[in-house]
Amino acid sequence: xxxxxxxxxxxxxxxxxxxxxxxxxxxxxxxxxxxxxxxxxxxxxxxxxxxxxxxxxxxxxxxxxxxxxxxxxxxxxxxxxxxxxxxxxxxxxxxxxxxxxxxxxxxxxxxxxxxxxxxxxxxxxxxxxxxxxxxxxxxxxxxxxxxxxxxxxxxxxxxxxxxxxxxxxxxxxxxxxxxxxxxxxxxxxxxxxxxxxxxxxxxxxxxxxxxxxxxxxxxxxxxxxxxxxxxxxxxxxxxxxxxxxxxxxxxxxxxxxxxxxxxxxxxxxxxxxxxxxxxxxxxxxxxxxxxxxxxxxxxxxxxxxxxxxxxxxxxxxxxxxxxxxxxxxxxxxxxxxxxxxxxxxxxxxxxxxxxxxxxxxxxxxxxxxxxxxxxxxxxxxxxxxxxxxxxxxxxx
Length: 396
Ligand code: C5P
Hints:
single chain, alpha/beta, Rossmann fold, 2 domains, 25% strand, elongated, binds cytidine-5'-monophosphate
């Protein structure tokens, strides 16, 4: 989904981070057209952005090389988004008051595209009441305000006002561009492994990085849904705007799911739930000796089946990781657990990797999603769910 983005850069130390942001946007296939204020060129040179974007960088309102001398209208005409990062307090104040005295502020005033603003300033400037009023005004006028974050600042102080990191801004922009296919839906997702305790330090678990589940949580949130993510132990960062509940054991995962399922329209069960828990758990660390240690294992509840087979269930999506007979085992699992949709993947290709390839099994048959980054697979899965859901809902 290639977009045309006008990236405005104002005078702030964070301007150097916009070089990385430009690189990320270009790498994702977007065309980036950079506009710098005069102050911004004191921090980073236009040549940097010209090299990274592959497009001319605009700094002046009056450009004799443009035939109609109206660079501001030409630039904004076809843009899908006008993103200003970093946005200084001065820029925010001007826009909040409709002032258009340089190319960038003129562009904002003359634009037909949406406006996103990533503030970056010292914490006192951020908290300054006029600045707060101006930010509120921008929000009221429909601008999307990205950040700022809290942390150490170029002036040596610590507090609110840091620009979001380039990676975060990139994610925000990508999320913003996704079609809102699940707007208004409440979606419960399980992800990652469960951990079944043996004693105070040991346990048994499943191999699962949590990457697929977290990518799905992000894609579902990007599609406009409210996401509750029940996560087993993983080091992954919580995707944007998801409510995360950390659990360890299958029993804890089941309790969290039971608490939230009634308020959910969809349930996507990506977690690799351990099939057994240890009956003879020890409170203290079991001392090592030469004897054979016997663990008694009892089956865990099947969380997905319990949700899918209940009265009035949400739209349930299951996962099947198999090492052979993918389609046969997958379809059998779908029928047994009464699922409208099951995502089947081979353990050999899925585990821990950043890419995946899957087969979607539903009442219409099978749909192959060829190898792609997990985030891309997640977005295509969301699109498929959004197609099935209304039909499923109607048939109930
Ligand atoms: O039966 P199997 O474990 O292969 O099924 C996989 C699917 O069922 C996954 O969607 C997984 O999240 C879910 N599951 C579950 N509770 C279990 C076992 C699996 O929710 N105890």
